[in-house]
Specification:
With 276 residues, the chain is α+β, with helices and mostly antiparallel strands. The strands form 3 sheets. Strands 4-3-2-6-7 form a 5-stranded antiparallel sheet, with helices on both faces. The chain has 13 helices and 9 strands. It starts with a helix and ends in a 12-residue tail after the last helix. It is 47% helix and 19% strand.
């Protein structure tokens, strides 16, 4: 390749980042990504955040996970493999207990630490009425089973089949695409829950979304229903799921490794923290 072509393409990633190849200490353009990951670790994992604080933090989750900022930082820093997070596989837990998505009334994946307890797969399912035998597919008269999985935080738990799917390690893309909730027989992705707070909660952009993407609008309406029909500890279910997603980011070993690499390729104090 000629020098002219190399100049046209711009500096390679490794040249841009690694010390000793360019003059002066290297500076990563993604210092705010490191700050945000550390913020989820230092604040979301240690503080009993209130709904207003969680709602504001949803903008950071959107930028990192939905808008692709985290992916860009990962790619630029030439990290190995793919970033991963751990969280409940809601559909696998449901199947383990004999439930089908179409029978979910209001169910939250969860997995966050709140008041010293980790809770996941909580909510209500339509089941066969033990007295009358009416099944969950009937229009009425079926039974309802209210369930949850919970354990004390900070206490070592014996590895077993249930724990493996309650704390399943997944690539971030798959984690976001998997169900964070079920409402009236519809699985709702974690990505949609993050977008709900950014684009719908409080009525923002509601008319525009309804006109341009009726499917997304319908999903957001289901999430809104969950705010009123599922509760865990002192939070409604949707906020609890948002908390769970943020905590999953904060405890991810691969993302904390990324934050450390960004720090090692940066200098000085950033002018802002990258959050709203």
């Amino acid at each position: 390749m000629s020098e002219a072509n190399e100049e046209a393409e711009g500096p390679k990633i490794s040249t841009y980042l690694r010390s000793g190849i360019v003059d002066g200490p290297p500076i990563s353009p993604f210092i705010t990504v490191a700050e945000d990951i550390e913020w989820f670790r230092d604040v979301w994992l240690t503080t009993e955040l209130q709904p207003s604080e969680l709602r504001r933090g949803s903008a950071t989750l959107r930028r990192l996970l939905v808008d692709g900022l985290l992916h860009d930082a990962w790619k630029l820093h030439e990290m190995a493999a793919f970033p991963t997070v751990a969280g409940p596989d809601l559909l696998a837990i449901a199947a383990l207990y004999g439930h089908e998505v179409r029978h979910g009334v209001s169910v939250i994946a969860g997995g966050a630490v709140r008041t010293g307890v980790v809770t996941c797969a909580f909510g209500a399912w339509k089941v066969r009425n033990a007295t009358t035998g009416v099944g969950p597919d009937a229009d009425g008269g079926f039974g309802v089973s209210v369930e949850q999985m919970a354990r004390r935080a900070g206490i070592p738990t014996e590895k077993n089949e249930l724990l493996a799917i309650a704390e399943k390690v997944q690539k971030i893309g798959k984690y976001l695409g998997n169900a964070g909730a079920i409402r009236r027989g519809h699985a709702i992705s974690r990505r949609s829950i993050i977008q709900y707070f950014a684009n719908y909660a409080g009525g923002v952009h509601l008319d525009k979304i309804k006109a341009t993407n009726p499917n997304k609008h319908a999903t957001f309406l289901l999430i809104e229903e969950l705010e009123k029909s599922a509760q865990m500890s002192d939070l409604n279910g949707v906020f609890y799921e948002l908390l769970s997603i943020g905590q999953a980011v904060g405890r991810s070993e691969t993302l904390l490794e990324l934050a450390a690499v960004i720090r090692s390729n940066s200098k000085g104090t950033p002018l802002h923290n990258g959050r709203t």
